[in-house]
């Protein structure tokens, strides 16, 4: 059994369970297949591969569903020879459940020109981050952008943030509830205001 040194974010969509892991957790994305089989849940997680950063999804049977690669890299990734991906950001599609999940990898959040125009209707979005936020200013800025994502696609955003340095771990779930003329947000775990609790 592969052991991943991180507690995943657990999320349910219509009683379908998902486990979401952070950006750099493993060097081998196929580790998530074994976790999915053992846990009997859909698993989505990031990997720092030899020359790229990826995110992959596996079914509860350990079957491969999809993988995409990071488009916008940090300076540190560029300096270590990581290669950016080309093409559009696209969702993972779970044919059996008829569900689309849109994966956003870390820094891609800050390039809305890549996702604002997408003509898709994801059931929820996953956002993978390699390390905690440096400070409260960065945390609030990224939280604001995560809410933009949620509002743009009118769905929840599941955030998995890795460890490895001091800072604010903003892992959690942003729940959106859209009314006739407004949208309200609730968040759980460590995102900005954990006291808001889980929506009913």
Describe the structure in your own words.
The protein has 200 residues and is α/β, with parallel strands linked by helices. The protein has one domain: 4-Layer Sandwich (Nitrilase/N-carbamoyl-D-aminoacid amidohydrolase), CATH 3.60.110.10. The chain has 3 helices and 11 strands; from the N terminus they run ββαβββαβββαβββ. The protein has a 6-stranded mixed sheet with strand order 6-7-8-9-10-11, covered by helices on one side. It has a 5-stranded mixed sheet with strand order 1-2-3-4-5, with helices on one face. 38% of the residues are buried.
Keywords:
six-stranded mixed β-sheet, 200 residues, globular, 11 strands, single chain, Nitrilase/N-carbamoyl-D-aminoacid amidohydrolase, alpha/beta, disordered C terminus, five-stranded mixed β-sheet
**CATH second-level architecture:** 4-Layer Sandwich
Side-by-side strand order of the widest sheet: 6-7-8-9-10-11
CATH homologous superfamily descriptor: Carbon-nitrogen hydrolase
Q: Can you tell me the overall shape?
A: globular
Order of helices and strands: EEHEEEHEEEHEEE
CATH C-level = Alpha Beta
How many distinct folded domains? 1
Note the topology.
Layout: E1 9-13, E2 16-20, H1 31-39, E3 42-48, E4 53-58, E5 64-69, H2 75-79, E6 92-94, E7 99-105, E8 124-129, H3 136-153, E9 156-161, E10 172-178, E11 183-189
Parallel strand pairs: 2-3, 7-8, 8-9
Antiparallel strand pairs: 1-2, 3-4, 4-5, 6-7, 9-10, 10-11
Please outline what is shown here.
The chain is an alpha/beta fold and 200 residues long. Helices cover 16% and strands 32% of the residues.
């Amino acid at each position: 059994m592969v052991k991943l040194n991180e507690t995943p974010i657990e999320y349910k969509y219509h009683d379908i369970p998902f486990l979401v892991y952070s950006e750099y957790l493993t060097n081998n994305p196929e580790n998530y297949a074994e976790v999915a089989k053992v846990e009997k849940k859909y698993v989505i997680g990031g990997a720092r591969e030899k020359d790229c950063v990826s995110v992959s999804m596996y079914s509860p049977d350990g079957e491969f569903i999809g993988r995409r690669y990071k488009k916008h890299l940090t300076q540190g990734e560029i300096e270590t020879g990581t290669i950016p991906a080309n093409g559009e950001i696209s969702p993972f599609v779970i044919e059996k459940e008829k569900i689309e999940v849109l994966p956003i990898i870390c820094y891609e959040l800050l390039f809305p020109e890549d996702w604002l125009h997408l003509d898709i209707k994801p059931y929820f979005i996953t956002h993978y981050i390699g390390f905690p936020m440096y400070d409260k200013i960065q945390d609030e800025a990224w939280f604001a952008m995560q809410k933009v994502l949620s509002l743009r696609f009118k769905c929840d955003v599941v955030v998995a943030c890795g460890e490895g340095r001091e800072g604010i771990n903003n892992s959690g779930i942003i729940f959106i509830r859209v009314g006739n003329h407004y949208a309200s947000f609730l968040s759980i775990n460590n995102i900005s205001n954990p006291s808001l609790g889980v929506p009913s």
